[in-house]
Amino acid sequence: MARGFGLSARVSVVLGIVVMIAAGVGFFILATLLNPPTYAVVVAVRDIPAGSVISADAIGIDDQRISPQVANVLVLESDKSKIIGGVVIQNIYAFQPLPRAAVLAANNPAAKNRLSLFLTDPGLVAMTIPASRETAPGQIAVGDWLDINFSVGSATFLAGSLSAAPTPFPFQPLPNVFVTQPALSLPLTPTSTAEPRLTLPVSKVIVHAARVLSVVFDEVPNPAYAGPTSSERATIQGRMIALVVAVPVEAQEVVQFGAVNGALRVSILSPGKDWSTEAPRKPTLGMTWDDLVALIRMDRERVLATQFPNPNDVNNATLVGPGASAIEATRNTIRLNQQRTLNAPKATETAVGTPGATATLTPTLTATATRRP
Description:
24% of the residues lie in helices and 25% in strands. By secondary structure, it is an alpha+beta fold. The chain starts with a helix and ends in a 7-residue tail after the last strand.
């Protein structure tokens, strides 16, 4: 009996301890709900209309007892310096806490959840462009600055030559096709003139100094994932598939055109310069097939004019590799000049003496007769 009574007493003690612990936890949770922690929250000290710039004297700090979930969506004292100079995108009334999502500022922590909060410049828009290891460096990060290049190859539906001249009279209405007057009264048709053309392929920088807002990666299955009870994620980050960049409003059409009809490639700019003050786009010459041909010709002429071997050693030059045809052409020119020199009329010098004067040599041409067929 004593042994049985002792076991029952132990069970009772254990149950009592469990009940006390459960009661303590419940009391703590209830106390937290009824008396939440205090957070230093940024509040407006006066009405701030939408579109207004946030100044230091327009906001203050107020200690408020709020739940952590509410605190996460408000601007706290630690973020105050990040929003000064930003713009509110909705009306904020006096003594109202500032929601993070209502502030347009470059350093706003809420921008990671709302992309438009990155666009502090109203002249910029966010666009997604395709990217891969072949078209963009793999170490691109948010905040990088880059140039966007558009290329069209000769194997596309645009293959051929493109006109570089503007369309003549693009907004002129078509002439009336119903002839009710004599032929002389019809509108005159502009005479077509030859215009320069660009030969594909073509490559062009279309956006200069665009900022990276986000890097998009593919999601692939995680081989370490063992089911719902696994501590691993079901998917892991895969390869880079796109970039979200801020481009000028007026450039969005050409970026979209490039993404659909050609290939877009990016080049990262040095972070040692403040590209935010740079012009949105600098004029560039672009590159076409004709430009490549002209560049090869110019470089060949420059090299052959200064570095070609002595004409006497022209036959000893080895024609191997790039530029062989240019060297051969130069060889032929040298041989032709040598042949012309050998076949040129010979000049003989005859001394003409004058008493008391120094003799002067006068060249006399002696032509070699050749029989004409």
